Amino acid sequence: MQDLGPGKSKRHFSSKELRYSIGILVIISLASGLGLIVLAKALNSVVSPGLTPLIVMAGYGALVLLLTMGFSHRFIGPFQRLKMELKIILGGNYSGRLNIRQRDDVYIKSFIEEINLLLNEFEKMHVLKEDLIKTVNKDLEALSSRIGGQEMTKEDLLNVIECCRTKTRETLKKYKYKYERLTEETRGRMS
Where in the sequence is the domain holding 79, given as residue range(s)? Predict the structure, then answer.
């Protein structure tokens, strides 16, 4: 559900676009049903009355089949394609995005846009994680070589650790990550 702000709520889980698409399908089915009724009356005068219900039932069956195929092609098919694209992205291609096709339903297009926004954030977090790992590893290697090479006072060690924290903060700020949240958690653990 969409957040509409304080004191406001959304009554429906589905979007207007989806309701319109389903409404159009219902209108098509009703219009086709009326067409079959008119056809049945016309056939009644041409064909024997016992054969008319069979023809109408066959027409309804064909109508249901066509609407089912149309609905599944229009709504279910794109989700199968999206499922495959997501598997590729989750396989390690974090820069990949879901494709919007011109013939996709409006509701599916808006869904894909939202997922792509989520994937953008996911990619940023992945890059942040990789940069953070590199920064921390580099600082730990430098700290290790300084400790191994000479005697260090407690003050020197604290200065090196603070330098590591500063570089980590800079890396997080580069990706606009809320460092305050991280520092509050770390301060709680260090106390």
Answer: 1-93
